[in-house]
């Protein structure tokens, strides 16, 4: 597994939660990307990596699709539960 060389960015607050939830479900990025597509969100592997590293802004509709793909609530994804 490749580890990030740089510290997390500051473009979003969900990146680290996405990684933690995805890994807790033993889901690889490729599988997660496929789930996102079934939710109507088609993003590239690079874009997902930048999102997880907090180097990319996240749109509100993306937050909803990500929560559905991870089978969690938006509140949980935002760290509110």
TrEMBL record:
InterPro entries: Cro/C1-type_HTH (IPR001387), Lambda_DNA-bd_dom_sf (IPR010982)
Name of the protein described by the UniProt record: XRE family transcriptional regulator
A single MF term (Gene Ontology): DNA binding
Boundaries of every HTH cro/C1-type domain copy: 18-77
Classification via CDD domains: HTH_XRE
Lineage top rank: taxon: Bacteria
């Amino acid at each position: 597994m490749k580890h990030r060389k740089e510290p997390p960015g500051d473009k979003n607050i969900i990146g680290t939660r996405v990684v933690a939830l995805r890994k807790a479900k033993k889901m690889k990025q490729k599988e997660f990307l496929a789930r996102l597509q079934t939710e109507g969100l088609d993003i590239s592997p690079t874009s997902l990596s930048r999102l997880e590293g907090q180097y990319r802004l996240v749109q509100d509709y993306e937050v909803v699709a990500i929560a559905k793909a991870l089978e969690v609530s938006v509140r949980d994804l935002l760290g509110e539960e």
